[in-house]
Amino acid sequence: MKKLLLIRHAKATHESGYQDFERPLTDKGFTQCEIMTARLLKNHIKPDIVVASPALRTLSTANVFTEELGLVTAITDHDIYEASENTLLKVIYNLPDKDFVALVGHNPAISQVLTLLSGEYKDMSTCAVALLEFEADNWMELHEGSGKLTWLDSPKED
Questions:
Q1: The domain spanning residue 54 has which CATH number?
Q2: Could you tell me which of 57, 53, 91, 90 has the C-alpha nearest to residue 74?
Q3: Which pLDDT tens digits describe the chain residue by residue (158 residues)?
Q4: What is the domain extent for residue 101?
Q5: Has this prediction a pTM greater than 0.70?
């Protein structure tokens, strides 16, 4: 069985002066990460590894998750940044050979892949987390509708 934890990056700044790739998380974004990692721990959801886009906002999100969950530093994959749905699927097909991987990325691709793999339309808000489970032995076996969405959560807005 394979498990995939899809994570959309936390709230990032929209202030001018930053290239898109370099947009940092806001204080609210860091708080969102802390809220979601606490919920993952409470629900005994802990991936083996984290793979993230190298963009500052996704890497910062991944760093909080790895630190709070007690995991090794995230692996980066540049293909996740500005990925289309098809590109993100290719990234998933080539994930490391672990049974439970977290992938930190961007919308719209994170939401699109969640919908494609689970057959359920869900819009991933900032720092939303979705757990998909697959009756598969390797990542290449995943296909449309093959995943079961077993857990979905997002930080509540104030």
A1: 3.40.50.1240
A2: 53
A3: 999 999 999 999 998 889 999 999 999 999 999 999 999 999 999 999 999 999 999 999 999 999 999 999 999 999 999 999 999 999 999 999 999 999 999 999 999 999 999 999 998 999 999 999 999 999 999 999 999 999 999 997 53
A4: 2-153
A5: yes
